[in-house]
Amino acid sequence: MKYNQPITLKNGKEAVLRNGEAADGKAVYENFNATHAETDYLLSYPDENSYDPEQEAKFLDGKAASPNEIEILAFVDGKLAGMAGIEAVGSKCKLRHRAEFGISILREYWGLGLGKALTTACIECAREAGYGQLELNVVAENGRAVSLYRDAGFVEFGRNPRGFRSRLSGYQELVYMRLELSRT
Question: Is 158 left (phi over 0), alpha (psi -120 to 50) or beta?
């Protein structure tokens, strides 16, 4: 899948949302580690990153060549500010209609509309890829994210009160959300 779109942020700066490429491997690696250190709401901690910059480059190449998966990077003034993507839940017939959504944004870019833009871009790409449903998990106490997803049309379909076990705060409740993209 291919994506390339400039947007204007709430602070008036321009961001470019585009496919990740192999040349972005180091920036993605560094961004992953930074975003995962800034918040306790993401799936893992920086020390659990199993990729190095070269593996990130291969991952990005695979996503760029995929007809139904994508990793979109958001650049502001040449800096990787955030990223989001969609990934197939599975390739079996009974799962092909489902994709998972994930997003992370550097704290300094929170509240500027980047999350909404990346979420909207991934929804567009999921529809284009022919998925019937887009899914995500979010920590319940992450009210800003829950609100963003609800505003984008996602609905809650369940909760897991012990979904994450944080090193900092103990168990975190996960909210399972889905967006129906088609009725077929």
Answer: left
Asked if residues 164 and 174 have their Cβ atoms less than 8 Å apart, the reply is yes
One digit per residue, the tens of pLDDT, for the chain of length 184 reads: 899 999 999 999 999 999 999 999 999 999 999 999 999 999 999 999 999 999 999 999 999 999 999 999 999 999 999 999 999 999 999 999 999 999 999 999 999 999 999 999 999 999 999 999 999 999 999 999 999 999 999 999 999 999 999 999 999 999 999 999 986 6
What six digits make up the tokens of 54? 């070269």
Tokens found for residue 138: 């979010």
Output the CA torsion sign for 13, 60, 35, 126: positive
How is residue 91 written in tokens?
């390739």
What DSSP assignment string belongs to 125-144? HHHHTT-SEEEEEEETT-HH
Structure tokens at 46: 């920086």
d(CA 109, CA 97): 32
Q: Please give the structure tokens belonging to residue 112.
A: 């500027």
